[in-house]
Amino acid sequence: MEISEFQKRMYDLYAHNDRRRGAAATTLWLVEEIGELAEAIRREDMENIREELADCFAWIGALANLYDIDLEAAFMEKYPDHCPTCKQNPCICTD
């Protein structure tokens, strides 16, 4: 699946709810999911990590749709084929 297909799927499924909820509340949902991901990582629960990563990705798609941002284009602009900081591939930044 291409990123644009994922984003369209999220739009078709949830855009009506996301618009009603608004960007601030949608961001809070994303932050909650990131907390759940952190907890799954702390427990080293691979199945839950997998689920929470999917949830985080979904909420990022929801935010992109709310702001009418093409995630695939934004990603390719920021991360073409090298690190945006050191301009190397692979990255040679120390952190």
UniProtKB/TrEMBL annotation:
Pfam family, one: MazG
Domain NTP pyrophosphohydrolase MazG-like span(s) in chain numbering: 25-86
Residues of the signal peptide: none
Classification via PANTHER family: NUCLEOTIDE PYROPHOSPHOHYDROLASE (PTHR42702), REGULATORY PROTEIN FOR BETA-LACTAMASE (PTHR42702:SF1)
Record-given protein name: Putative pyrophosphatase
